[in-house]
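Recall that a protein's primary structure is simply its ordered list of amino acids. Everything else, from secondary elements to tertiary packing, is in principle encoded there. The following example makes that idea concrete.
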Amino acid sequence: MTTAVAPMGWIPFINPLYSAVPHLTAIWLLLIFPLVVIISLVYQTVRRNDLSGLALGTFWFSTKVLFFMALIAVVIQIVFFLSIHYLAGPLN
């Protein structure tokens, strides 16, 4: 007979990071900004032959990525609202 043993470490999708570090719960969404800027910087560095406009290119690419992520979030929210309201009936 085998017995179940409790895991000794952190399991990413079962125990999210914000449950292990409670003070990250309020600010975890703000971590998207440095992530997008770093990814944009690496992308612009790899794509450009001349690095003279790197800062401006990184700024505009980051702005575009964040704008379209926000736009997608709004569209998903609208689709969710419409699907709940019209498919499931009123929320009363």
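Residues 17-87 form one domain. The longest helix spans residues 54-87.
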